[in-house]
Amino acid sequence: MKKHRWIVCGAALGLFLVMVPGIVCAGPTYDRVKETGVVRAGLMYDSIPAAFINEKNEWVGFDIDIAEEVVKRIGGQMEKDLKIERVKVNNKTRISFLTSNQIDVSTANMTHKRERDKTIDFSITYFFDGQKVLAKKGKYSKLEDFVGKRLASMQGTTSEKNAVNLLKKLGDPKADEHVISFQRESDCFLALKQDKVAGWTTDSTILIGYAAKEPGQYELVGDFFSDEPYGMGCSQDDSAWRDSINFALQDMWLDGTYKKIYDKWYGPDTPYYFPLTAKIEVWP
């Protein structure tokens, strides 16, 4: 009698899972990718030079080259040719697209934070940056000069929180009011151009990228005031998939492919020069 009761309960549970919206019995990402041959990669499209649309209307950048190489190498691990499907994400959607299974990996200049790690998992750090302030050239010389001034930042990012904390630390009594949030990086840059803000603060490489659009007109002010280690976002508790990403990144570092991609976008012969001062974690 007990056996029959378990069969009925199991059938009822199966019917419940099928009928209730939002409950999905999905397999691990690694197995799904191996079966479909497709990796959906979340990428920014407004972040110079990480991932942006250039003057030829091409979607290019450091993160795009890194994502494509990682996917290629995961295919090698699987002994299968994989196709990458680029999916546009922004600061608000890059995590929600992962948790809702709309993408398999987020390569979107995303700082690995403990708070974010409660929702998703991260690869090892694949890029090392820090936060600074961009201003019109010659107007400001140190971070203290921005006390009482308005700073642009990206809505819903760690940069936004860091900016408020910086102004508070420097003694600005209206720090919360003086950080003006925008949805897109290009909106932040436009606000700076139009003198709606005194500075724009986010990760330094993004600021360098936008400043390069108008050489000699803008400059970074002051020292770094945060560390921003970027990780590739992936689904929570999916270790096989996360390991495949980590192995690909480490192999890229060991055989020099990472440095080649890095120098293409951030090397001394580019408008976005940013010295590589750290190493990717490599496991024996």
How would you portray this structure in words?
With 284 residues, the protein is α/β, with parallel strands linked by helices. The chain folds into two domains: 26-128 and 230-266, Periplasmic binding protein-like II (D-Maltodextrin-Binding Protein, domain 2, 3-Layer(aba) Sandwich); 130-227, Periplasmic binding protein-like II (D-Maltodextrin-Binding Protein, domain 2). The chain is built from ten helices and twelve strands. The protein has helices at residues 2-19, 29-36, 62-78, 93-99, 158-169, 175-178, 185-193, 204-211, 239-254, 257-266; strands at residues 38-43, 46-47, 51-53, 59-60, 83-88, 105-106, 121-136, 151-154, 179-182, 199-203, 218-221, 227-234. A hairpin with a 5-residue loop joins strand 3 (51-53) and strand 4. The radius of gyration is 22 Å and the shape is globular. It starts with a helix and ends in an 18-residue tail after the last helix.
In short:
The chain is an alpha/beta fold. It has helices spanning 2-19, 29-36, 62-78, 93-99, 158-169, 175-178, 185-193, 204-211, 239-254, 257-266, and strands at 38-43, 46-47, 51-53, 59-60, 83-88, 105-106, 121-136, 151-154, 179-182, 199-203, 218-221, 227-234.
Sum up the structure in keywords.
single chain; 284 residues; alpha/beta; D-Maltodextrin-Binding Protein, domain 2; 3-stranded parallel beta sheet; 10 helices; 38% helix
